[in-house]
Write a structure and sequence with these properties.
Blueprint (H helix, E strand, L loop, with lengths): L1 E10 L5 H12 L3 E6 L5 E8 L1 H13 L5 E11 L7 E3 L2
Parallel strand pairs: 2-5
Antiparallel strand pairs: 1-3, 1-4, 2-3
Length: about 90
């Protein structure tokens, strides 16, 4: 199990990005974690745990985002899974 922390910058708030990320994690399966808007108004943070192939697939989706998003940058940090998540959910 691995953990990936992703910070997605651009027009990613108020465009359904968090719902998009949650649905992608659910569709891929085997991923737990969370997605939230950061207070800067232009960054979404995703922390996800699972097997590397599933996380790689999620990362591909996050680089594109939903139709109304404009992803300008993606920072990725890989670590060993820490646990603490029971599902993938949006944090408000």
């Amino acid at each position: 199990m691995e953990r990936v922390t992703v910070r997605v910058r651009g027009r990613v708030q108020m465009v359904g990005y968090r719902v998009f990320a949650e649905m992608a994690a659910e569709r891929i399966g085997g991923i737990v974690g969370m997605v939230r808007n950061l207070p800067d108004g232009s960054t979404v943070e995703v922390v996800a745990e699972g097997q590397r192939p599933a996380l790689d697939e999620l990362l591909e989706e996050l680089r594109v985002g939903p139709a109304h998003a404009l992803v300008r940058g993606v920072d990725v940090e890989w670590n060993v899974a820490e646990g603490g998540f029971d599902r993938f959910r949006t944090i408000y």
